[in-house]
Amino acid sequence: MTPGPHRFDDLFAEFGPIRLRRFFGGEGIYAGDVMIGMVFDDVIYFKTDDESRKAFVAEKTRPFQFVKRKSGELVITTWFALPDRLYDDPEELAAWARAAHCAALRSQTVKKKRKRKGRIRSR
Fold this sequence. Notes:
There is one protein chain. The protein is an alpha+beta fold. It has a single domain (19-115), classed as YgaC/TfoX-N like chaperone (Yope Regulator, Chain: A), CATH 3.30.1460. The protein is 27% helix and 29% strand. Strands 1-2-3-4-6-5 form a six-stranded antiparallel beta sheet. β3 and β4 form a beta hairpin. The chain is globular. The termini are far apart. The mean pLDDT is 88.
């Protein structure tokens, strides 16, 4: 049985409300209309950029990666796995979630969507 959409409410309580949406065989984690994370195989990955990625690298977490079906090419993304210790620390996880939110807001994808649709709600 798959856990319900509210299974992360306690974990993200310090950060604020999130919602989950299906995303390519996993789930996207949204703060407002901005995707800040994703869940694949019970692992949470947060959006990173050059500024926020340093903390993940220091914790020796891995980026999300996948193999393209048609070409067999390995794709390494800018989404990094949360350090295991954060699953037991909602207060510190909130700081990492805020950094992921900021990284997502700085991303070209969100900037393009803002231009197309007008302002995107943060939360």
